[in-house]
Amino acid sequence: MENVGLAFALTLFAGLSTGIGGAIAFFAKKTSTKFLSVSLGFSAGVMIYVSMVEILKESMHTLQETSGDILGAWLVLIGFFSGILITVIIDKLVPAYENPHEIKMVESMDNDNTQPKSARPTKSLMRVGFMTALAIGIHNFPEGLATFMAAVSDPALGLSIAVAIAIHNIPEGIAVSVPVFYATGSKKKAFLYSFLSGLAEPAGALVGFLLLRSVMNDLMFGMVFSAVAGIMVFISFDELLPAAKEYGEHHLSIYGLIAGMAVMGISMIYL
User: pLDDT tier at 65 (50, 70, 90 boundaries)?
Assistant: First the structure.
């Protein structure tokens, strides 16, 4: 497996971008809904396009070479929907009321500051913050594997996916920061929790690398790559686009989606 060091670096960058969301909550006075809506749509566009046009094509080529045209095509199909199934199971393990993708605004941090710290329900809010960080960690685990495997195969492709997932992680960092700040009144603690929640992505890459390196061959690579495509497509439709819409800028999220696909398509021609 080549490019392992670069793959880990890109995965670490993507994961720790939750800290960018924490920093936004630390410094910003108002949530830029238009920016986040376009950004999330753009991220979804990149991930959908690259999954359907590049990753599945690479998986199909590899698996048909190793297993024949018909069986190879079936293996791609099985791998793709297995990736979706894995992500669905992870979603089911996270309680709905602690959904890490629930929209939170930076403004609410300042609004809550009108209450004295003693009046804040500290324990319950800290639990929400902790559980949100944990839930994000669980969700980010397969994303780390996806980024890592893409970067191992093609560094340029891995960079595109890492940037898309980094954008996706920014509002998650805000989701962790807000309840922690509610509970503690400390923006530094809020930032730290959001930053650390992103460590699950490099952890996912590390676990994937340790589990797969001894058995990695063309057949396994093709199956993992098709599963990665399924993971990213599901994330885009289940998390990114609904989150973009919840920020109240539906058309902007679609414009971002199309822009993401266009940028990815152009970059694949020249890179």
Answer: very high
Which amino acid is present at 259? A
As a whole number of angstroms, the distance between CA 230 and CA 180 comes to 33
Q: Specify the residue for token string 């393990």.
A: 93
The SS3 call for residue 8 is helix
| Terminal-residue alpha carbon distance, the chain | 21
Residues ≥6 apart with Cβ < 8 Å to 111: none
Q: What is the Cα–Cα distance from 64 to 176, expressed in whole angstroms?
A: 43
CA distance 264 to 50: 7
The proportion of the chain whose per-residue pLDDT surpasses 70, expressed as a percent, equals 76
How many angstroms separate the CA atoms of 209 and 135, rounded? 22
d(CA 196, CA 32): 24
List Cβ neighbours of 210 (8 Å cut-off, separation of 6 or more): none
Q: What is the DSSP string of 17-34?
A: THHHHHHHHHH-SS--HH
Amino acid of residue 53: V
pLDDT-based confidence at 97, cuts 50/70/90? very low
pLDDT average, residue stretch 258-262: 91
